[in-house]
Specification:
By secondary structure, the chain is α/β, with parallel strands linked by helices. It has 10 helices and 13 strands. It folds into 2 domains: 7-132, Rossmann fold (3-Layer(aba) Sandwich), CATH 3.40.50; 137-277, 3-Layer(aba) Sandwich (Cytidine Deaminase, domain 2). Helix 8 (191-198) packs parallel to helix 9 and helix 9 runs parallel beside helix 10. The protein is elongated, with a radius of gyration of 19 Å. The termini are far apart.
């Protein structure tokens, strides 16, 4: 039996890094975690989990440690909040990296592509979490008891059109539409804050759909659209009727719990192929 490749996990916030670590332990996959300070929580990593906390500005230090740990594959997973100035104070290698890529001229996707290129120069392969855990990708079709009504389908169609344009500009992955009106689009704040913000703009009556798609040029290995229990809770609080999410191109955290909660709130969750709504 061939020896399993060692996995490096660059961990942000949220539950996905812990889910991946647990999966590695259960499946005897050797691993090392590089946890990003201010995002990953120290209490989530016990002494039994081989790990190191670094600031975003210490990317060079982190890369060196991954090499020392003989990591072969790397997964970048979890949320990263907007860093403070202190977070960004770079080590020497990170300074050189920022200078080389012209940080201010790139969007999120451009920075991630440059980072992947830098990592793979060190003969480490960047992989998507779905290549390790295939079941984490959102399946196709209706996942809940509740179905979208005719208005919701029209709102999904409108949302797909807007979300794809947003993605082309490397702006965001999500849009909320109610009765044909775009209530809000995702910027730097992320999906959860978008949902909360749109509560103030909803029209009278029910309705409202969150459409969340992978950007057209987005690398499948990093920053895939993600939904979880918190997404459903926030959508319910805002009064949305449901969510339409990019099938096979988005992550669903705790799928069973997400579906159970959506059913409880009589919301729909559907995995869509955007091409079918154009």
């Amino acid at each position: 039996m061939p020896e399993k490749r060692k996995l490096g996990i660059i961990a942000g916030g949220g539950t996905l890094p812990q889910i991946l670590v647990k999966y590695c332990v259960q499946n005897e996959i050797p691993h090392f975690v590089l946890a990003v300070s201010g995002n990953a929580k120290p209490e989530d990593f016990t002494p039994d989990t081989p790990h190191l906390f670094i600031r975003i500005g210490q990317a060079g230090t982190g890369l060196k440690r991954l090499k020392q740990e003989n990591v072969q594959d790397i997964v970048m997973i979890g949320t990263i909040r907007r860093p403070s100035f202190a977070d960004l104070v770079p080590d020497l290698r990170t300074t050189a990296f920022f200078s080389k890529i012209g940080l201010k001229s790139l969007g999120d996707d451009g920075i991630l592509r440059a980072l992947i290129k830098e990592i793979e120069k060190e003969n480490m392969k960047v992989v998507g979490i779905h290549e390790i855990m295939p079941d984490v990708l959102l399946p196709q079709g209706l996942l809940t008891k509740q179905k979208p009504d005719n208005q919701s389908y029209e709102d999904i169609k409108r949302g797909v059109s807007v979300a794809l344009k947003l993605g082309e500009l490397d702006v965001g992955q999500s849009v909320i539409v109610q009765q044909g009106l775009v209530l809000g689009v995702e910027g730097i704040e992320g999906t959860d804050e978008l949902i909360k913000r749109c509560a103030a703009y909803k029209r009278k009556g029910d309705g409202g759909v969150l459409v969340k798609l992978r950007k057209p040029t987005q690398d499948m290995r990093v920053d895939l659209p993600t939904i979880g229990v918190k997404t459903i809770e926030n959508a319910h609080q805002t009064g949305l009727k449901g969510l339409a999410v990019h099938t096979g191109n988005a992550l669903i955290v705790d799928q069973e719990e997400v579906i159970k909660l959506a059913d409880k709130y009589h919301m729909f969750l559907i995995g869509i192929n955007p091409a079918e709504f154009l």
